[in-house]
Structure formats: structure tokens, C-alpha cells
């Protein structure tokens, strides 16, 4: 991230204490370095959605080596984006990132826009990603709210153990109220609060003794009450349609041309589930039929002939 040290480092506020902690303890992640381009930050934010940092770092480095600019990616096919995405998970993100690159070239001359409304208008860029790019790439003052930020703010300010499964408008308001007025300091504070939730104020094993705001944390003061509802369990993967989709995509990624239906039939024994997973890939714009008997990654070659 850019060198955006500002008022947050000296103010004796929540943001100031967290920002000071961040400067001393933040992980050395490549997209946080001062020379990182807005495009590289955008790619990192898309890759980090529901994917651990340890898996993202090598994928991000390989992606930027191949496509260092939006124009470079826009000049490739969506099929190549899916191949490069590999097993990072949720491959629809690769297609949306390709669509985003095309839009940046067509609408903004190949430069990632710095205005929030323009970022929000890009394909696949939602509330979180747009604000993250505006803050971390351009040093602007916006509440950047992910699961980690919601948990920190909910615990430290409201004294609640859990912020719920989705981001609400109230979460944006509560987070913005904690940010310094100066944009660069606010951007730093946004990164700091997120990092605190990722490595200290974690969901299952918070390390309160290492927290820079322990003395003022409302959740800590109330005895760290547990969530009232049932704990969410990790989603099962083995045997699900998601696993079958991954197996089908694996075959299609490695292919150099259309893959006959018979080859895909070998991936999974359950005909009904396999057909459902394949149809889902087509519906999601990841795979397209070629004639009546074959399939390929979307855009992997000349336009597919229309069946019938």
C-alpha cells in the first residue's frame, strides 16, 4: 500500500491507535508496497474475496507478470483468464475481472478510474471492492468494510461478538465514523482496521492481549460474550456440485480444443449431478457448447457454431 501516514499516527483515537499498531505489525504483502499500481491493487482485491492470502500471493504475482495492465488482460480471451486463475476458487471472478479490464480500456483509456461512482460501474466491482481501490490505490476517505472490519467495529464499539453474515448500510456508517478526516490518514486507518481483524481480532481465537484497542474495547469490557445464535459451520465441499464443477473445469482448462461430452462423462459417475454442474458452468458464462457434442471454456477460439 502507498505511504499514506497522516494524522492517524498521532491522534489518540481508535483510528490512531490501530494505525500505529499497523505500522509496526502489518504483514508484508506485495500489494501494499508503494510502487503497486491501482490495477494490481484491484486484482488483489478480487482475488482475496473468500480466498486465503497464502494462496493469493503466488497467483497475484503470476497474473501481474502476464497481464501488468488492464489493456494486456483485455487483449486476451476470457478462456485464458480462467486458465490462469487455476484452482484459486470461484472462477467466475476471473471472467468478471476480464470484463472489468475490457471496460477500463473502453471507458477510461486503460487507466483504473479513481472516482467511486466510476469504480462501482465496472463489471464485477461491488461496494467493498470499489471502496478498497479508492482508498488503497488512491488514498481516499471511504469506509472499506469486509468481514474482518465488521467484526472489529462490532466488538470494539458496539460490544457485540458478531456482526452478522452480510454488510449493511449501518456497517458503512459505523466504520466511517471511526476514520480520520484527512483522506490519507483515513485510508491508512481502513487498512489497519482490516489487518487487525485478520490477524488479532479473529472470529474464533481473538488475541485480545495483542490488540491496540483492548483497553477501550466494549466487547472485552463486557466479558467477551459468545454469539447468541448457532455458529456457522464451514461449507462441505466433497461430493457437492461445486466439486463436480471444479473437476469439469479442470479438464476444460487443460484442453487445447473442444472437449467431447464423452470425456466429460468420465469426470463424475452421477449423470444427473454432472449434467447439473455442467449446465451451471454454462449459465455462469464459464463454459460454452460447441455444436451438440462438445464443450470448451468461454471464448476459447472462434465463435461457437449455433446448435441445430
UniProtKB/TrEMBL annotation:
<dbReference type="GO" id="GO:0046872">
    <property type="term" value="F:metal ion binding"/>
</dbReference>
<keyword id="KW-0227">DNA damage</keyword>
<dbReference type="InterPro" id="IPR000445">
    <property type="entry name" value="HhH_motif"/>
</dbReference>
<dbReference type="Pfam" id="PF00633">
    <property type="entry name" value="HHH"/>
</dbReference>
<dbReference type="GO" id="GO:0006298">
    <property type="term" value="P:mismatch repair"/>
</dbReference>
<dbReference type="InterPro" id="IPR011257">
    <property type="entry name" value="DNA_glycosylase"/>
</dbReference>
<keyword id="KW-0004">4Fe-4S</keyword>
<dbReference type="GO" id="GO:0035485">
    <property type="term" value="F:adenine/guanine mispair binding"/>
</dbReference>
<dbReference type="InterPro" id="IPR023170">
    <property type="entry name" value="HhH_base_excis_C"/>
</dbReference>
<dbReference type="GO" id="GO:0000701">
    <property type="term" value="F:purine-specific mismatch base pair DNA N-glycosylase activity"/>
</dbReference>
<dbReference type="GO" id="GO:0032357">
    <property type="term" value="F:oxidized purine DNA binding"/>
</dbReference>
<dbReference type="Pfam" id="PF10576">
    <property type="entry name" value="EndIII_4Fe-2S"/>
</dbReference>
<keyword id="KW-0326">Glycosidase</keyword>
<keyword id="KW-0411">Iron-sulfur</keyword>
<dbReference type="InterPro" id="IPR003265">
    <property type="entry name" value="HhH-GPD_domain"/>
</dbReference>
<dbReference type="InterPro" id="IPR004035">
    <property type="entry name" value="Endouclease-III_FeS-bd_BS"/>
</dbReference>
<dbReference type="GO" id="GO:0006284">
    <property type="term" value="P:base-excision repair"/>
</dbReference>
<dbReference type="InterPro" id="IPR004036">
    <property type="entry name" value="Endonuclease-III-like_CS2"/>
</dbReference>
<comment type="similarity">
    <text>Belongs to the Nth/MutY family.</text>
</comment>
<dbReference type="InterPro" id="IPR003651">
    <property type="entry name" value="Endonuclease3_FeS-loop_motif"/>
</dbReference>
<keyword id="KW-0378">Hydrolase</keyword>
<keyword id="KW-0479">Metal-binding</keyword>
<protein>
    <recommendedName>
        <fullName>Adenine DNA glycosylase</fullName>
        <ecNumber>3.2.2.31</ecNumber>
    </recommendedName>
</protein>
<keyword id="KW-0234">DNA repair</keyword>
<dbReference type="GO" id="GO:0034039">
    <property type="term" value="F:8-oxo-7,8-dihydroguanine DNA N-glycosylase activity"/>
</dbReference>
<dbReference type="Pfam" id="PF00730">
    <property type="entry name" value="HhH-GPD"/>
</dbReference>
<keyword id="KW-0408">Iron</keyword>
<feature type="domain" description="HhH-GPD">
    <location>
        <begin position="47"/>
        <end position="199"/>
    </location>
</feature>
<dbReference type="GO" id="GO:0051539">
    <property type="term" value="F:4 iron, 4 sulfur cluster binding"/>
</dbReference>
<dbReference type="InterPro" id="IPR044298">
    <property type="entry name" value="MIG/MutY"/>
</dbReference>
Amino acid at each position: 500500500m502507498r505511504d499514506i501516514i497522516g494524522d492517524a499516527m498521532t491522534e489518540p483515537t481508535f483510528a490512531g491507535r490501530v494505525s500505529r499498531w499497523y505500522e509496526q505489525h502489518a504483514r508484508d504483502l506485495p500489494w501494499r508496497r508503494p510502487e503497486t499500481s491501482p490495477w494490481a491493487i484491484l486484482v488483489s482485491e478480487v482475488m482475496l474475496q473468500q480466498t486465503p492470502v497464502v494462496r493469493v500471493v503466488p497467483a497475484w504475482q503470476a497474473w501481474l507478470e502476464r497481464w501488468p495492465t488492464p489493456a494486456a488482460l483485455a487483449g486476451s480471451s476470457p478462456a485464458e483468464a480462467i486458465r490462469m486463475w487455476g484452482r484459486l476458487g470461484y472462477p467466475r471472478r476471473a471472467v468478471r475481472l476480464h470484463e472489468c479490464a475490457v471496460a477500463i480500456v473502453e471507458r477510461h483509456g486503460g487507466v483504473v478510474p479513481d472516482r467511486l461512482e466510476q469504480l462501482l460501474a465496472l463489471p464485477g466491482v461491488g461496494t467493498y471492492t470499489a471502496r478498497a481501490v479508492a482508498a488503497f490505490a488512491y488514498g481516499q476517505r471511504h469506509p472499506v468494510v469486509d468481514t474482518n472490519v465488521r467484526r472489529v467495529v462490532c466488538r470494539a464499539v458496539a460490544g457485540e461478538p458478531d456482526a452478522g453474515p452480510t454488510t449493511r448500510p449501518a456497517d458503512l456508517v459505523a466504520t466511517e465514523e471511526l476514520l480520520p478526516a484527512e483522506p490519507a490518514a483515513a485510508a491508512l486507518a481502513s487498512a489497519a482496521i482490516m489487518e487487525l481483524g485478520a490477524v488479532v481480532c479473529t472470529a474464533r481465537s481473538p488475541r485480545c492481549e495483542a490488540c491496540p484497542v483492548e483497553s477501550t474495547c466494549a466487547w472485552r469490557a463486557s466479558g467477551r460474550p459468545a454469539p447468541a445464535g448457532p455458529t456457522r459451520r464451514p461449507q462441505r465441499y466433497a461430493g457437492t456440485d461445486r466439486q463436480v464443477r471444479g473437476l469439469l473445469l479442470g479438464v476444460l482448462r487443460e484442453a487445447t480444443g473442444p472437449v467431447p461430452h464423452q470425456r466429460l462423462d468420465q469426470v463424475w459417475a452421477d449423470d444427473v449431478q454432472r449434467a447439473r454442474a455442467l449446465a451451471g458452468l454454462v449459465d455462469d458464462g464459464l463454459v460454452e457448447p460447441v455444436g451438440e457434442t462438445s464443450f470448451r471454456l468461454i471464448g476459447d477460439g472462434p465463435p461457437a457454431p449455433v446448435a441445430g
